[in-house]
């Protein structure tokens, strides 16, 4: 897979959109695993050449030492749901807005599927 970030760090917990034209993932600079402080990205994905382009950080661009993890596309591909600091958030691809969607401050979103997430 080709991505400009790959030589500089770890791309982890990747989610390919249902149409296979977009990709989202966690990124950390460096190659020693450290989960808090990762930045979440969304990008274009060319499945035939396995190329990731037009990267955009959508959560934790500053690299705060907080748990940002498990980005996954919603079923309708209009949003990405992810876990941050014990809460669940929904990032809208259309307008770049983010809103908290969990009511439980201890929500856990490990190993998500996305089929039943809000759009």
Question: Describe it for me?
Answer:
With 119 residues, this protein is mainly β. The protein has one domain. It is built from no helices and eight strands. The strands form two sheets. The protein has a four-stranded antiparallel beta sheet, with no helix packed on it. It has a four-stranded antiparallel beta sheet with strand order 5-6-7-8, with no helix packed on it. Strand 7 and strand 8 form a beta hairpin.
Which helices and strands appear, and what pairs or packs with what?
Elements: E1 9-16, E2 22-29, E3 39-46, E4 51-59, E5 68-73, E6 79-84, E7 87-92, E8 98-100
Antiparallel strand pairs: 1-2, 2-3, 3-4, 5-6, 6-7, 7-8
**Strand order, sheet with most strands:** 1-2-3-4
Structural class: mainly beta
Q: What share of residues is helical?
A: under 10%
Kindly state the number of beta strands: 8
Query: Please, how many domains?
Result: 1
Mean pLDDT across all amino acids: 89
Uncertain spans: none
Largest sheet, in brief, is: 4 strands, antiparallel
Order of helices and strands: EEEEEEEE
Query: What is the tally of helical segments?
Result: 0
| Rg value | 13 Å
**What sort of overall outline do the alpha carbons produce when their principal axes are compared?**
globular
Strand content: over 45%
Termini separation: 29 Å
């Amino acid at each position: 897979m080709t991505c400009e970030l790959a030589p500089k760090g770890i791309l982890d917990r990747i989610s390919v959109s249902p149409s296979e034209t977009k990709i989202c993932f966690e990124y950390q600079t460096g190659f020693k695993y450290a989960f808090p402080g990762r930045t979440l990205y969304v990008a274009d994905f060319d499945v035939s050449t396995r190329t990731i382009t037009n990267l955009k950080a959508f959560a934790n661009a500053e690299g705060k030492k907080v748990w940002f993890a498990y980005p996954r596309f919603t079923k309708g591909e209009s949003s990405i749901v992810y876990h941050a600091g014990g809460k669940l958030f929904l990032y809208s691809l259309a307008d770049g807005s983010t809103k908290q969607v969990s009511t439980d401050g201890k929500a856990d979103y490990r190993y998500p599927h996305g089929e039943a997430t809000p759009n």
